Amino acid sequence: MHFVKTGQGHPVILIHGLLGNLDNLKTLGAELSKQYQVYRLDLPNHGLSPHKQTLNYQDLAANVAQFIEQQQLNKPHLIGHSMGGKVALACALTYPQLISSVTAADIAPVTYPARHLQIFNALKAIDLNQLKTRVEAQMSLISAGIDLGTCQFLLKNLYKNEDKYAWRMDLDTIMNQYPQVIDWPFVEMSYQGPCLFVKGGDSDYIVDEYRTSILKQFPHCQAKIIANTGHWLHSQKPTTFNMIVSKFLASVDNEQSGI
Question: Which of 96, 127, 193, 202 has a 20 to 30 A CA-CA distance from 220?
Answer without folding.
Answer: 202
